[in-house]
Amino acid sequence: MYTLTGVTKTYKKDGGTVAALQDVDLEIEDGEWLAIQGRTGHGKSTLLNVLGGLDRPTAGTVRLDGHDLTAMREREVGKIRATTIGFVFQTFNLIPTLSAAENVEAALIPLGMRSAERRRRVGEVLDSVKLGDRAHHLPSELSGGQQQRVGIARALAKRPRVLLADEPTGNLDEDTRDDIITLLETMHRRHDLTLILVTHDSALAYRAPCVGVMRNGRLSIRRNTGRLAP
Ligand SMILES: Nc1ncnc2c1ncn2[C@@H]1O[C@H](COP(=O)(O)OP(=O)(O)OP(=O)(O)O)[C@@H](O)[C@H]1O
Ligand SMILES: [Mg+2]
To answer: What is the pLDDT of residues 153-211, one digit of tens each?
Structure first.
């Protein structure tokens, strides 16, 4: 699904440059599950943003199904994001004045769906994350784990082919974290969803068949042959 070649991202800072990504080559197949680890400031979020078309690299190409995101107009990239790519964030990023259902529905507006179909889809996806009975609650009326499930429902509502998650369990306690991971694994299996997940949590990364480690903007990949116990 993804082919990255020579992807480099540099930032100018205080007269010098910071290389957030350095010459990253990466192949990600359809339906793969990749966990990305690495210490703080080593380029994990930058890589995820580049994969999601939220950020453009300074050099290199990012092909998604053969189309080079780096050569596309912003509008075209936006269309791909709206239909193909779901994002989940560490801090949930829900709109505080909208209910759970409205937050999820917001992701469907760019798809030009009819409102009845949109609402049906919202109900379905909230049920699938077991929040059917919380649809009309505001984010402030939900626990952290529930808010993250709304975040996941919002990302999945469009039926994306890839889910990009940046520390999705970073703000959750251990039990809630396990619930969220089980939910993501289920979605990955059930919908053949490609899952790319940034995490500091080794227990979580061990569950992924494929682990990438970012160090100083460089990526090394290890494919787990047998599954290691968490
Ligand atoms: N907009 C920006 N302007 C300047 N430098 C930036 C910018 N965004 C990121 N960087 C730098 O790029 C490097 C990589 O940042 P990135 O956010 O990708 O790290 P990370 O691995 O996600 O860290 P964390 O685990 O803390 O989230 C860091 O040195 C950071 O300071
Ligand atoms: Mg980060």
So the answer is: 999 999 999 999 999 988 888 888 888 888 888 889 988 899 999 998 887 888 899 99
Atom of ligand 1 nearest to the CA of 38: 21
Ligand 2 (single-atom ion) residues, CB below 5 Å = 45
**Angle 54-32-22 from CA coordinates, rounded to 5°:** 45
CA 49 to ligand 1: nearest atom: 18
Domains, the chain, with CATH or none:
2-223 (3.40.50.300)
Q: How many CA atoms lie within 13 A of 185 on its CB side?
A: 13
Which are the contacts of 159, defined by CB distance < 8 A and separation ≥ 6? 191
Please give the Cα distance from 165 to 48 (Å, whole number): 8
**Residue located nearest, by CA, to atom 3 of ligand 1:** 11
Pairing relationship of beta strands 59-64 and 2-13 according to DSSP bridges: antiparallel
Q: Tell which one of 11, 22, 199, 202 to mutate to probe ligand 1, the residue whose CB is within 8 A of the most ligand atoms.
A: 11
CA 70 from centroid of its chain's CA atoms: 19
